[in-house]
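Subject: design request, 653 residues
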């Protein structure tokens, strides 16, 4: 995941320089190209190099001096200008990490060559700036290469990295050549994008490198390469089929622990141009084991599942388009990440729609629990909300790829906000003609983005009597009025499904925003349910349906309520205390004791049910002292005449 991290040094320097208009007008050059050689010596440890910059004066007036900026631990040893040595000062009047040199007059649009020799001496163990015997990690935002101060660091480069033979280097570029001679490895790298903050990140370590076509995997366990390459191949195929050529000709995937405390925020990785660093804590297994995840109602993808690799890789590879090509305003960082995550999940949807639905269900449960914990203003809530908001718009059709292509075509050379997403969605010419609820295109759903609230649709009913128009006392028949309350702040289409004893009938209905709608139903109806595309942002799904006769879950609901309040329950219900319970589950007895220890009044508001053969799962709100405490999941099993409750998950405990 792309991070917005700059060293405090960089903030201080850039703030000072950019606050001085005179400096910007008279002393700013642009870098046209960079080439050079960098040497890593683990014994010292040290990093040193010779760099040649082609610079250009794009200012209207001639320039007679230049400034270089760098990390404060980097030292410039010499400067030359068009092959003549330059005298330079360090930090005078500006601070550590800034170098000043007088140059011959450089007129408007004139170019020149500046050569820099530098070195960095270890041991250094800063976050995102690591130089040790075992490894090296230089974040481009720490300005580990000295660069002439420019409007923005945008240029292409060609660099050779020299290391001992047993070490491999990785830059956010493509390998053009590599040789090993006299125990030294020389790797030539050529950048494919001009954004140095993305492409200029350097990793060096004693990796084992496995290559598969245009992809490279750096690890200490070569057996992990198979599921990595399988996931990469499938994801890349879908991307190129729907969005055209992938923006990078090579991909370099690193699974190694570096000094990088901020890598893992929402997913287990970070994209830096064509480098993807994945968490070393992420277990890589094979095969995919799809069935066990598909059949489980627990919307959690285990960390030892290969689907975590799919989620991480698809998200990080999507950054090649989003933030690589499509760029957001800085204060819309979370929206950018949501758009990227949904692209990653959408790619998974092309492979396995059931797994995709697990991710969306997981997001909804996390949103509910974050709201219950008072964390609706957090980045995590905003991130997940954006993903599920996009789900309400695009799930089930190919319009998301067309939406991305339209965004790229319109906004490749500018920065965008959510308003551009909404306008593009409304202008999109959809080719989807299917009318089932999953395939509807619903661009107005994006208008919920930014509200960051969970809403609801509620069904209720009342019995009425239809009487004779003239003789009001003469009853003709009994009917039911179903009342639909829509609390979403927008209009949308839904499907009202009525079940009779021998058939089912569906009605398309338009729900107005914040409205109440009544429907008169005949007395033969046994249940009614409403389906909408907005369930991923609903607080409670249980009140989306009504069972007019006894529901098969009624006995179970009442027994759970009785069990937790230490009352008697039906003989058909058994609460079991399991042995060797998985770590994420809690047995019922333990949970009851903990719950009763903090509240005398407890009950559950059930939200959704899922069945898989004899096993079933119930999702519910735990209500303590009349207030929602957490959103939980029960697991149970049917055994002949009995219903057994086995385990539960409560994230609040």
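Subject: RE: design request

Done. Sequence follows.
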């Amino acid at each position: 995941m792309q991070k917005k991290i700059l060293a405090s040094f960089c903030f201080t320097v850039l703030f000072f320089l950019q606050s001085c208009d005179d400096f910007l007008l008279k002393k700013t050059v642009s870098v046209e190209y960079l080439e050079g050689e960098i040497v890593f010596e683990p014994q010292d440890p040290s990093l040193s190099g010779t760099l040649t910059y082609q610079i250009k004066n794009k200012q209207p007036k001639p320039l007679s001096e230049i400034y270089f900026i760098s990390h404060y631990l980097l030292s410039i040893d010499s400067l030359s200008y068009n092959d003549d040595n330059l005298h330079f000062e360090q930090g005078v009047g500006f601070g550590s990490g800034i170098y000043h040199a007088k140059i011959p007059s450089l007129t408007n649009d004139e170019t020149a060559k500046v050569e820099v020799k530098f070195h960095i001496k270890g041991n250094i163990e800063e976050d995102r700036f690591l130089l040790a015997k075992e490894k090296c990690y230089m974040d481009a935002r720490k300005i580990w290469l000295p660069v002439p101060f420019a409007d923005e660091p945008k240029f292409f480069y060609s660099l050779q990295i020299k290391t001992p033979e047993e070490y491999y280097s990785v830059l956010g570029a493509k390998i053009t050549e590599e040789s090993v001679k006299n125990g030294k490895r020389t790797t030539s790298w050529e950048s494919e994008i001009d954004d140095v903050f993305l492409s200029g990140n350097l990793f060096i370590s004693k990796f084992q490198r496995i290559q598969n076509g245009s992809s490279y995997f750096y690890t200490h366990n070569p057996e992990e390469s198979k599921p990595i390459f399988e996931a990469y191949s499938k994801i890349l195929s879908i991307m190129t089929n729907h969005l055209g050529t992938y923006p990078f000709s090579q991909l370099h995937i690193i699974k190694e622990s570096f000094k990088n405390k901020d890598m893992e925020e929402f997913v287990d990785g970070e994209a830096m141009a064509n480098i993807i660093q994945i968490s070393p804590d992420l277990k890589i297994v094979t095969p995919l084991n799809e069935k066990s995840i598909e059949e489980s109602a627990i919307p959690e993808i285990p960390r030892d599942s290969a689907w975590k690799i799919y989620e991480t890789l698809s998200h990080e590879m999507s950054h090649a388009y989003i933030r690589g090509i499509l760029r957001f305003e800085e204060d819309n960082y979370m929206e950018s990440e949501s758009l990227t995550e949904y692209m990653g999940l959408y790619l998974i949807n092309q492979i396995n729609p059931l797994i995709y639905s697990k991710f969306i269900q997981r997001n909804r449960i996390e949103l509910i629990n974050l709201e219950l914990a008072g964390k609706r203003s957090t980045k995590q809530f905003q991130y997940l909300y954006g993903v599920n908001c996009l789900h309400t718009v695009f799930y089930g059709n190919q319009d998301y790829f067309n939406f991305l292509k339209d965004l790229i075509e319109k906004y490749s050379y500018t920065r965008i906000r959510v308003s551009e997403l909404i306008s593009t969605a409304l202008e999109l010419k959809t080719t989807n003609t299917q009318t089932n609820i999953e395939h509807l295109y619903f661009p107005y759903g994006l208008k919920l983005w930014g509200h960051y609230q969970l809403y609801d649709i509620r069904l209720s009913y009342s019995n009425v009597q239809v009487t004779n128009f003239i003789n009001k006392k003469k009853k003709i028949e009994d009917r039911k009025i179903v009342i639909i309350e829509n609390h979403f702040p927008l209009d949308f289409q839904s499907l009202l499904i009525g079940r009779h004893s021998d058939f089912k009938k569906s009605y398309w209905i338009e729900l107005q925003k914040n409205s109440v709608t009544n429907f008169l139903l005949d007395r033969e109806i046994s249940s009614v349910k409403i389906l909408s595309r907005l369930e991923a942002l609903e607080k409670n799904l249980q009140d989306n349906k009504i069972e007019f006769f006894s529901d098969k879950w009624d006995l179970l609901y009442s027994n759970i309520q009785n069990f937790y309040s230490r009352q008697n329950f039906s003989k058909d219900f058994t609460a079991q205390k399991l042995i060797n319970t998985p770590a994420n589950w809690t047995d019922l007895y333990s949970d009851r004791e903990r719950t009763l220890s903090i509240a005398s009044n407890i009950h559950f508001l059930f939200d959704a049910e899922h069945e898989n053969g004899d096993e079933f799962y119930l999702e519910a709100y735990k209500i303590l002292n009349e207030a929602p405490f957490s959103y939980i999941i029960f697991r149970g099993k049917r055994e002949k005449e009995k219903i057994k409750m086995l385990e539960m998950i409560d994230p609040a405990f």
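The chain has 13 helices and 37 strands.
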